[in-house]
Amino acid sequence: MKHYSIRTTIAIQYAFVVLIVVFLISIVSNFLISRQFENYVEEQQNEKAEDMALNLSHQYDAMSGGWNLDYVHGLGMYALNEGYILKLSDEKQDILWDAQNHDMTLCSQMMGSISSQMQENYLGFEGKFVTHRYDLKQGNQVVGYLDVSYYSPYYLNENEFHFIEALNQILIVVGICSLLMAVVIGLFLAGSLSKPIAKIVEITERISDGDYSIRFQEGVKTKELDDLSRAVNYMAESLENQETIRKRLTSDVAHELRTPLANVSSYLEAIIEGVWEPTPERLQNCYDELERISKLVSDLERLKQMENENLKLHKTRENLLELVQAVMKNFEIQMESKNLRSVVTGEDVFACIDRNRMQQVITNLISNAVKYSNENGTIRVKIEKNADMASIQVQDEGIGIPEKDLPLIFERFYRTDKSRNRRTGGAGIGLTIAKAIVQAHGGKIIAESKQGIGSTFTVIFPVE
Ligand code: ADP
């Protein structure tokens, strides 16, 4: 199928609409103007005949009872040229002057030319010569009769035909000009639509070629195009983030594995070569490194499982306050070692949740709060219920998260400070898992943080 550009399509549509409008206006105005003009001509014909009758009535001399036949002849010949055939009779109906008697050939020539001209210009025109009789009076006395024959309902002389012709030509010229203007305006207007679309197409093509840093910069006035360009920009941004995370993931996993593997192999090599004694302490070191590797692998597996199984929840009615207190207990030793204080506030809030999964969420949040807290800090957990929503808030006074990292911390394997985190042992998937679980509960998780002051993670979900 042939595809036309927006420019061409809009210009053609514009031209088509204008063509129809101009065509209708031309037909209607031509019809109305012609009709008006024909009425005018018809009235003019009648008036002229009446004028001639009046004029001729003055040519009777009441004193002598005679007619000025020279004048009658002059007027008769003039009228014949104009398309009127006159016949003058006296009061006794005796013919005094008759154009047909006077010049039969001229009369039939004139009648023939008028009817053929009208038939030629108005196909199927139904006209014929009709005779009107006028009484010629002086005072109240009838002094004669004038029979005027002319082409009825009307006929147009050469000038009048020219007028109608000129009118039609003007309408055609106006039509063509409007059409051209419509095409030009259509092209111009279409340009304002097609240009940004072409630009967006170019950008999406570059995105599909892997250039995720490109963005649509220009402002667009059309709402839908503006939405489209925003959506494309958003898509590019998400792809760019995903790309960063993907690259980071590969390098992180490699990095994460390389250090413990190198350690283990160098320990074992030294033991095999007899450089080192295989003391329990050294073997414990090897074991610890292998533990780190297997933790990473199990994290990866957990994540894979989370993504594969579409998170089926087994919900039961649980007391959130009690659940939080239970989780808190598991962190007593870690908190003690950093001299951290915990404050749990809120009342009993019951909600339908998957206990194990939600416990995992709370564990991940509290574990992070403990990991990233400085010594002697306080960790506050608040449980609340608002309408039919429950919220669990975990707040710490730890190192905080840089603003630029905040939107990314829920992405898998995202860690704000790689070297520090390797020490603390996190692989950067705790929050990814937490977010997936909360979303499966129909809720959301919000992170707020100020570097050097602390972080607050709030989990909100429906109680039912
Ligand atoms: P990790 O196992 O590395 O803690 P998470 O997914 O739980 O992975 O967290 C991702 C990153 O978010 C962490 O590496 C850390 O940089 C940051 N983060 C999470 N929670 C906190 C917190 N309470 N305070 C400071 N940084 C945090």
Word description of this protein:
With 464 residues, the protein is of the alpha+beta class. It is built from twelve helices and 13 strands. Helix 5 runs parallel beside helix 6 and helix 6 runs antiparallel to helix 7. The longest helix is centred in the N-terminal third of the chain and has 52 residues. The two termini are 54 Å apart. Bound molecules: adenosine-5'-diphosphate.
Core attributes:
binds adenosine-5'-diphosphate, 5-stranded mixed β-sheet, 464 residues, 4-stranded antiparallel β-sheet, alpha+beta, rod-shaped
- pLDDT averaged over residues: 87
Shape: rod-shaped
Question: Got a strand count?
Answer: 13
Distance between the termini: 54 Å
Supply the helix-strand structural class: alpha+beta
Helix content: 55-70%
Q: What summary fits the major beta sheet?
A: 5 strands, mixed
Tell me the strand order in the biggest sheet.
8-10-11-13-12
Count of runs of 4 or more consecutive helical residues:
12
Computed over alpha carbons, the radius of gyration is: 52 Å
What is the fold's blueprint, element by element?
Blueprint (H helix, E strand, L loop, with lengths): L5 H52 L2 E2 L4 E2 L1 H14 L2 E6 L4 E4 H4 L1 H18 L6 E11 L2 E12 L5 H51 L14 H50 L7 H29 L7 E4 H11 L1 H6 L3 E6 L3 E4 L1 H17 L6 E9 L2 E7 L22 H7 L5 H11 L3 E7 L3 E9 L2
Parallel strand pairs: 8-10
Antiparallel strand pairs: 1-2, 3-4, 3-6, 5-6, 7-9, 10-11, 11-13, 12-13
Helix pairs in contact: 1-5, 5-6, 6-7, 8-10, 10-12
The site of adenosine-5'-diphosphate has 22 residues, from α10 and α12.
